[in-house]
Design brief:
Number of helices of chain A: 6
Oligomer: heterodimer
Helix content of chain B: over 70%
Shape of chain B: globular
Structural class of chain B: mainly alpha
Strand content of chain A: under 5%
Shape of chain A: flat
Distance between the termini of chain A: 55 Å
Strand order of the largest sheet of chain A: 1-2
Radius of gyration of chain B: 22 Å
Strand order of the largest sheet of chain B: 1-2
Structural class of chain A: mainly alpha
Number of domains of chain A: 2
Largest interface: A-B, 68 and 58 residues
């Protein structure tokens, strides 16, 4: 945990510097404005567009240094801890659950929301949760049907269908 | 006496069978829409606005359609707390602060106490705001107008300061969390100059800005679930919740411990609600901050304080009525939902403004009467359904967790219909999980992304007005004291540190 604390503070410090640099960016359409011209007060216009994000990012940078000092002085709980940042269970959980979530997202892009919901629910309920096939399929199909009628039919919010689009055309003809 | 007589007449009209029926349907629809992650009162009101023309065609006036829309608004305010507490995903932005303590209570197997506190506090908030609305509408509208840009910015500063001064968390991490939320709120086009800002890697998705719900659902839907799965390795005590009617009755008795948060939320929420450009979300977050600020046990907040549920819930209901006030008396909507309601009123030929109360009493008083009726209907329906909401928590965690993940993704898409937001939400959730492992508080970042788009223009307009002089925040009669209190709160941890050092050396 102690090493993770200082590595994170370092990454957040770099992020703060990047945000400061990015905040000072001038718009492409106006070549007369130099970088960081927008972070102060502009005559007759008040603070420029980069004023607020730049100085906030500067405060973030100070906080990152402060977190680093606390780490050195061992005054924050994570800087005193000898525990692992993420133990074996945590790493496995992140891989199967987090990985499953990203798989879910990729599947939405290909096969649409409803097919992806079905696949993700079967993956989680049956293979991670070890519930029976009957429970798995009834929950998974029940959720897909409920979502379809709530979002697509009642609220008129059409969820992306991807490759599964043709399967829904008869349903639209029936209910819309 | 005129006011009381007019209100009584209004309530009688609101109790007519057609209006009562519409109010009941509206509350149920609102409750359901509000409870669905990603959808809030604005979705319900906007989607059902065309339906009100059918109602108008049937009833022949603007009163019944407006009662229907106002009751959806009411129901949604109650509904937002349901998913915040049971699933840990804020149903709408107005219910984010409810998640701070509602979720820990649910995880401890006390979801029934949180749900009852939310319902009763909402009822109290709604009642207080209705009374204030009825009695002081024109006067309060004038007070709201006296709040200029420096005053509103000072209020925002106070909200951030309560997190720093009384957060109980690591100070640099809390300040970092607030600042990153504020910076993320600036992504997109600058509304003052029209210049693009922080469009990372020229990805077009960033040009519309990082939306509040993307961050809130990412942090509380994905991040919170990953955290729960990682920490509750042998199952969560959430599923031990008592779902009997007896438990609900016991929880009603417990509500006496939430009186302070309820009172603070009811009054503060109403006041923030009437401020133009504020609304129920800042109202609920500020009520949470002030309840914590004035509490004898501020350390309990964030860990399952019943006051921490009551304060934001009373406030968001109170603020939602408060937001109607500038809409009706000045024609200025205080929130996105009231903007849609305003559009409805204009379509039906009504002219919101100072003369509405005198020119259209047949419309105004039944509408105000319906606020009282909708509030009673909403609390009764909510309390009756609590065992059903609790039943969800009895599900095995390996079923509840994927349901929450699915609702987080679907809810985010439904809110903005943009897959970029869904990807961003999951990435935010994973980052929030890692930061939480290292004790970075995430609630201040969520608060900041809500208040950032209000705070920044107010700061810039104030400085434009004062020609860059920051004293504008100190030398005005309302802004000055608020700013000084905020600065004292920010410096409070430093005072405590100095005091401890002195004690150690003595």
């Amino acid at each position: 945990m102690r090493r993770a604390e200082i590595v994170t503070a370092f990454i957040l410090g770099i992020l703060s510097i990047y945000l400061m640099w990015k905040s000072g960016e001038a718009p492409d359409w106006n070549p007369d404005i130099a970088r960081f011209d927008n972070i102060g007060l502009i005559e007759g216009e008040g603070p420029g567009s980069g004023f607020w994000p730049f100085w906030l990012s500067f405060i973030m940078l100070i906080c990152s240094v402060w977190i680093g000092i606390n780490w050195y002085r061992r005054t924050s709980p994570p800087s005193q801890s000898d525990e692992e940042f993420l133990d074996g269970y945590g790493r496995r959980m992140l891989f199967v659950v987090g990985g499953g979530l990203f798989g879910f997202l990729i599947l939405i892009e290909i096969a649409g929301f409803y097919a992806a919901i079905l696949a993700f629910m079967i993956y989680y309920v049956r293979f991670l949760g070890r519930h029976s096939w009957w429970a798995t399929l009834s929950i998974s199909f029940g959720l897909v049907i409920a979502c379809f009628f709530f979002f697509d039919i009642a609220m008129r919010i059409v969820l992306p269908k991807g490759l599964s689009e043709p399967l829904f055309i008869p349903l639209y003809e029936m209910f819309l | 006496m005129d006011v009381i007589a007019s209100l009584m007449n209004g309530i009688l009209v609101a109790l007519e069978p057609i209006n009562l029926g519409l109010a009941i349907i509206g509350v149920i629809v609102g409750l359901f829409v509000g409870a669905m992650p990603g959808l809030g009162s604005v979705n319900g009101v906007a989607i059902l606005l065309p339906f009100t023309f059918v109602i108008q065609g049937y009833t022949g006036g603007a009163t019944s359609p407006m009662i229907f829309l106002a009751s959806i608004y009411y129901g949604a305010m109650y509904g937002g707390a349901i998913s915040s507490i049971t699933l840990g995903i804020p149903g709408a932005s107005t219910a984010v602060a409810t998640t701070f303590d509602g979720r820990p209570l649910a995880l401890a197997g006390k979801a029934h106490i949180a749900l009852v506190a939310a319902a009763l506090a909402s009822f109290a908030g709604g009642t207080v705001s209705n009374v204030m609305f009825t009695a002081f509408a024109p006067l309060l509208a004038a007070v709201a107008l006296s709040f200029g840009d420096p005053e509103v910015f000072a209020l925002m500063l106070l909200a951030f300061a309560t997190f720093v001064g009384l957060g109980g968390d690591d100070i640099p991490k809390t300040i970092f969390s607030i600042c990153i939320g504020l910076v993320l709120a600036t992504v997109g086009f600058d509304i003052v100059s029209g210049e693009p800002r922080l469009i990372f890697f020229d990805i077009t998705g960033f040009s519309h800005g990082i939306r509040f719900l993307v961050l809130a659902i990412g942090v509380y839907g994905i991040g919170e679930m990953l955290w729960t799965i990682n920490t509750s390795r042998h199952g969560s005590s959430m599923s031990n919740v008592d779902v009997t009617a007896r438990a609900v009755i016991d929880a009603i008795k417990e509500f006496r411990h939430a009186w302070r948060g309820t009172v603070i939320g009811s009054f503060l929420g109403f006041f923030v609600g009437i401020l133009p450009a504020a609304g129920a979300t800042p109202g609920s977050l500020m009520a949470y901050g002030v309840a914590k600020l004035t509490s004898r046990n501020p350390n309990e907040y964030g860990k399952g304080s019943i006051d921490g549920v009551a304060a934001p819930e009373a406030a968001n209901n109170s603020a939602s009525t408060g937001a109607m006030l500038p809409m009706m008396t000045l024609g200025i909507p205080g929130s996105p939902t009231t903007a849609v309601l305003l559009a409805g009123m204009v379509i039906w030929g009504l002219q919101p403004g100072p003369l509405l109360f005198t020119d259209q009493p047949d419309f105004v008083w039944p509408l105000i009467g319906s606020f009282y009726i909708s509030n009673v209907i909403a609390v009764l329906i909510n309390l009756a359904f609590i065992p059903v909401f609790l039943w969800m928590l009895r599900m095995p965690f390996t079923i509840l967790a994927p349901l929450i993940f699915v609702l987080s993704l679907v809810g985010t898409f439904a809110a903005y219909q943009d897959m970029f937001d869904v990807w961003l939400m999951v990435i935010v959730g994973v980052c929030a999980f890692f930061l939480r492992l290292l004790d970075y508080p995430v609630a201040p970042a969520v608060l900041a992304i809500v208040l950032g788009p209000i705070a920044e223009p107010k700061l810039r307009q104030s400085l434009l007005f004062s020609d860059g002089d920051f004293m504008i925040f100190f030398n005005r009669p309302i802004a000055g004291p608020i700013t000084i209190i905020a600065i004292v709160l920010i410096l409070l941890p430093l005072f405590k540190l100095i005091r401890d050092k002195i004690r150690q050396t003595a």
